[in-house]
Design brief:
The chain is α/β, with parallel strands linked by helices. 27% of the residues lie in helices and 24% in strands. The protein is built from eight helices and 18 strands. A hairpin with a 6-residue loop joins strand 3 and strand 4.
Length: 339
Amino acid sequence: MKHFVLVAGYPQPPKSLPFRAYCENRVRRLVAANKAREDLVFQIMDVGSGEVVVRTFTYPGGNRTESVAAVRSFRPVTRALYNGNAFGDGHFDVMSAMDVYAAVSTIGVRAPGTLRELSFFSHGFAGGPVLVDSWDDGQWQPPGSRYAEVVPSGRRDPDDRDPRTKDFQPANMDPAALAALQAAYHPDGFNWSWGCAFGHDFNQVLAKVEHHPDYRSAGLADSQVLVLGDLPPGPAAVLGIGLGRVFPDPRRIEVTFGEIRQFVRREILGSYSHALAVASRRKTFGALLGTYAEPDTGARPLMHVNSAFTRHFTFYKNYFGFTFDPESRRYGSYEPDFG
């Protein structure tokens, strides 16, 4: 039996994409591709509706049958839970990333080695999928208390519903739960974060390097000096923070290509896709930093990374050894042993 966990983020305006429909389309695609007629179990976790539904496909006598069961419900997400565009505090009964991990860990206990895919269909950024766009501000007000408390360093903000890179640390996930999560995966299992990882300032730095006259798409020595002129203040500050340097004149930033690779490596290591790959010990397909995803067209649409980032794809492939997803959707493969 093969298990799949498909998570649909809340389709927050103004870019209200049909994430639950993408989960259903994923089911249809995988069932259609199941030529071996193996039993399939899909757990769909819809953050917006609060529903957790299990769809099971079996093939007695070679004939496909399907059963559907609603196994759990959380508080539905509505605009009333938001303060402007930010998710409000105190909504502890809304589905969170920790509930997703718990579902995977349960598979690790009850049916180890059977999880083929954990997918997040949602908006996203380098820090992870955006389930409701909650805020990790390090403060929360316990139920029944009149006062806010500071969240200890390294701990998840209890108000936060979205995935974070720190989720798998002992402060947030005990060793037994992490072991169960890892045990859930089949040797060929993987994770997939279908949203964006754009970052405007990061993208500008990378694009500036890739269009430099001394840049080469392969084989450029780390010692090669690049003078980046007219880099806007935002990207210049991001690069400076990443390298621990201050650039007094953003119109003349002098760095080596080795420093650029150090900067990008640091960002990769700080990404959610990398954290999930390391924690699960399984590859994670996700948008490469500085790229964004968009909806498919045609039947049973899912998502793909925009094709305009050819230079970025080549950069990651040739200078960091990245490969890409097996469905030619241009998502990079974050490997557990990347360092």
